[in-house]
Write the C-alpha cells for this entry.
Amino acid sequence: MTDADQTGSPPIPADWHARERAILAPWAMHATDSAGREHPEESHPFRSPYQRDRDRIVHSAAFRRLAHKTQVFTDYPGDFHRSRLTHTLEVTSIARTLARTLALNEDLVEALALAHDIGHPPLGHAGEDTLNDLLTDEGGFSHNSQALRIMTLLEQRYPGFPGLNLSREVLDAQAVRARQPEAPTPLLETQVVDAADSIAYDTHDADDAVELGLVTLEELLSLPLVAAAARRVTERFGELGPLALRRAVLHQLIETQVADLIAATARRLQAEQFASATAARTVTREDGRLVIHEPELAAGKKELERFLFEQVYRSSRVMEVRERAQQQLRNLFVWYCEHPHDMPPRYRQRVESVGLRRSVADYLAGMTDRFLSRDAQRRLG
C-alpha cells in the first residue's frame, strides 16, 4: 500500500499524455497525434494543446463579445432569452457530456464548442444575412468563415503571430463548418459539437419562444417529439403547472436527444472498432458522419425545426424587428464605407490587402448589438 493509499489522499495525477492514454478510445483524437500549429510553439509543461486552445478562445475579445450578441430574438425586453454566449455555454455542456460518455477527447470538444459561434456578427442571423448581401461581390459573409478569420487573423493578442494560432484540428473543424472545399472529413469530436449545437438551439429556441409569447406550450406539445417528452415527465412527476411542466419538458427533450445520440453512436463505434481517429474519418456514409440520431428521432427533430422556422423565426413579430435592425446595419455599413478613417487603425490598415468593404464588414461583425445601436445613433442620428 502506498502512502497515498494510507492517508486516503488521491495519488498525484499523471500528465495529460498518460491521462489521454488511459481514458480515450482509439478512435478519439489524441493530442499527441495533433498536426500542430501554423506557427510552431514550445509545448506547455502541464496543459495539452487542446487545453491551450480552449484557454485562448475563452480569453479572446471575440468570445467576450458573445455576451451581448443576439442568439435569435433581437431587441426584446427582459434578459431571459439566450445570448450567443449563453447558447455557447449550453452547447459546451451538452458536448462535454457526449464526449465523455463516448470516450472522445473532451478537451478538444470543449475548445471546438466554445469557438463554434465566435464569428457571429451582431443581430444574430439577421446581421449575418445583411452582411452577406452587402458582400455579394466580395465572396459573401458567413459566421463560420468569419470565425476562421478571427482565429487566424483578426484577433491580435500575442506578439509572435496573428490570430490565436490554434491547433490544426480546431481550424479544420471550423473549415468543415464553413464548407470550404479543402476541409477534411470531420473528426468525431467535430461531429459531437455539431450535434450538441443542434440539440441546444432546437430546445432552447423553443423555450425562448414560449417565454416571449411567440408560441404556446400547447402548440409545442402538438409535435410528436415534444409530446413524447411530456409523457415521460407526467409519468415521473404527475400533473404539473404550466411553468413547471414547460421546464420539465424542455429538460426531458434534451435528455431524450442526448440519450438517443449516445446510444446510436456508441453502437456504430463498437461495430466499426476503428483503430484511430484517422480511421474513423474513412466512414463510407454519404455525409461522412457517425454521430447522428436514430431515424425516428431525427424525423422528430426535423418537424420541430420546421415548426420553429415557420412559427418563430419567420413570424411577423420577429421579422418586423429583424427588418428594422437590418436597415440600421446597412446604413452603418454605407456610412463607414464613406468614412473609413473613422474605423480603428487596424481595420483601416487592412483596406489595401482585403478591400474597403471587407474591412468594414470585419469591423461591424465584431460589434455587439448594443455597441452597434449606440454607434448607429452617434453616426446616423
Summary: Confidence is low (pLDDT under 50) at residues 1-5.
